[in-house]
Design brief:
It is a single chain. With 459 residues, this protein is mainly beta. The protein has 4 helices and 37 strands. The strands form 7 sheets. The chain has a 10-stranded parallel β-sheet, with helices on one face. An 8-stranded parallel β-sheet has the order 4-7-10-13-16-19-24-26. A 7-stranded parallel β-sheet has the order 3-6-9-12-15-18-21, with no helix packed on it. Helix 4 links the parallel strand 1 and strand 2 (78-82). Helix 1 (2-12) crosses helix 3. It starts with a helix and ends with a strand.
């Protein structure tokens, strides 16, 4: 096992004569790239590889439920959810309690539908990856994605989530698309879509606002290249003359643990107000739009290429039926709000690929930016002046550290990236990637991240 790990490390160093090195040189020659900025931490690579091991398949000839695979899995295992062209079934709620796991939909272009996902009580030093998961909000009592009481790291890529609507005639309200709470560790997500639950069902509570898109309390997180919106408020009825508010797009609160969030290159909007119903001769007012971004006392948010927007007022059921509410405020700030002036840099890649394959990496940013790539076997969370570093640093395995290239007038650069082969006996391992840019004025930006789950050729 040790010998095979060392061979994998040698591949990551692009040793002379290897297929990876040949492919890398070919890319550099075709694209006139001066060097590949590949930072691979040698320290810890063996332990990570050893921890990554079995692949448990959900789908044909595998587990019928993701939760059954979670219960059977050990730390470091990968749960591969094979999604057919028709989208497949909606799986039952998934609960990950304290295990370091990767749950990934395959192929990368599809998503695995689940009722809800909960990740909790993850110890420090452990990581959970959710890749290509679509939480549909099947539980009215909890957020569709709930990350709570985690000292470890949770990362989400290419995931969607919609909060549950308020149940019919219940005291329960609509639920957030994602809640991150009471966590001393970190959370980060990229290329995700969050929409709060709809408050459009009659309940015993006359106030029935839409739910929040993202709700954070006593936690630290970063969001990249994502869309976050509050849910729509409840419509008015005979008993209620005014429809309800739309939900907050994002709320960040602080009471005990720090509450900090980076929003980079993302869309943040309050939810639409509730609809104005038409009950001649009775009329009502449509609901006000929700707040785009709300900060509680002691909370801190940094915006980069992100402008929160208040939600629109609710519509009218018919023209001239009632009156229209107001657009929601963009920001309600009782904490600390900072705007980072440097532009963002985005990275997209497949989330699942076979060992030894060549995958496309697409960078999107400002024309003229010099683009770099950080790559490694582990994730971290370090807040720097240039942004949040999410790839574990370590000794450089490839000595050339020049830029991958310069963004042209389109602001986009796509390159072929050769993946290494896995050590013998390892079914899957995660490769962490993060974009980094130097701008024309010399300032720098840590960009979005991606994680590629590399599978043994047997899968």
């Amino acid at each position: 096992m040790l010998a095979s790990m060392l061979r994998w490390m040698a591949l990551l160093t692009f040793a002379s004569g290897s297929a990876v090195a040949t492919a890398a040189r070919s890319v550099m020659l075709r694209s006139h790239i001066r060097g590949i900025a590949l930072v691979v931490p040698l320290s810890g690579l063996c332990s990570v590889s050893a921890a990554q091991g079995n692949v448990l398949v959900v789908g044909p000839n595998g587990f019928s439920q993701i939760q059954a695979a979670v219960q059977a899995a050990q730390d470091g295992d990968t749960i591969l959810v094979r999604v057919p062209p028709n989208g497949g079934p909606t799986y039952d709620a998934v609960d990950v309690a304290g295990k370091a796991l990767t749950i990934a939909a395959e192929p990368s272009t599809r998503q695995a539908k689940v009722s809800s996902v909960s990740v909790h009580d993850l110890p420090a030093g452990k990581t959970v990856v959710l890749s290509g998961v679509n939480a549909l909000g099947g539980s009215p009592a909890a957020p569709s994605i709930w990350l709570r009481s985690n000292a470890g790291s949770v990362r989400l890529v290419s995931c969607n989530s919609r909060g549950a609507p308020a149940p019919f005639f219940s005291v329960l309200l609509a639920t957030p698309a994602m809640t991150i709470s009471s966590s001393s560790g970190s959370a980060a997500f990229a290329s995700c879509g969050l929409v709060g639950g709809l408050g459009d069902r009659p309940t015993t509570d006359p106030r029935n606002p839409g739910a929040r898109g993202l709700e954070m309390q006593d936690s630290i997180a970063a969001a990249f290249d994502s869309s976050i919106m509050g849910g729509q408020g409840d419509s008015c009825s005979f008993a209620i003359g005014v429809a309800s508010l739309g939900g907050d797009g994002v709320f960040v609160g602080h009471s005990a643990l720090p509450g900090r969030l980076l929003l980079s290159n993302s869309s943040v909007q309050g939810g639409p107000g509730g609809e104005a119903g038409c009950f001649p001769p009775l009329y009502c007012v449509s609901g006000n739009g929700g707040t785009g971004l709300r900060l509680g006392s002691g909370a801190a948010v940094t915006l980069q290429t992100t402008t929160p927007v208040g939600g629109p007022p609710g519509p009218q059921e018919a023209p001239g039926c009632g009156s229209t509410g107001a657009v929601g405020p963009a920001v309600a700030n009782q904490g600390s709000l900072q705007v980072r002036p440097t532009p963002a840099i985005a990275l997209r890649s497949p989330t699942v690929a076979g060992e030894g394959q060549t995958i496309p990496l697409t960078f999107t940013g400002t024309p003229g930016d010099q683009v770099f790539l950080l790559a490694g076997a582990q994730t971290m969370f370090r807040e720097l002046a240039a942004g949040v570093l999410l790839v574990q640093p370590g000794p450089t395995a490839f000595p050339q550290r020049g830029p991958l290239g310069i963004l042209g007038t389109s602001g986009t650069l796509t390159l072929a990236y050769p993946l290494p082969r896995l050590p013998a006996g390892i079914g899957a391992a995660n490769l962490w990637l993060q974009a980094f840019a130097t701008h024309a004025d010399g300032k720098r930006t840590m960009g979005s991240f991606s994680v590629v789950t590399m599978l043994d050729s047997g899968f």
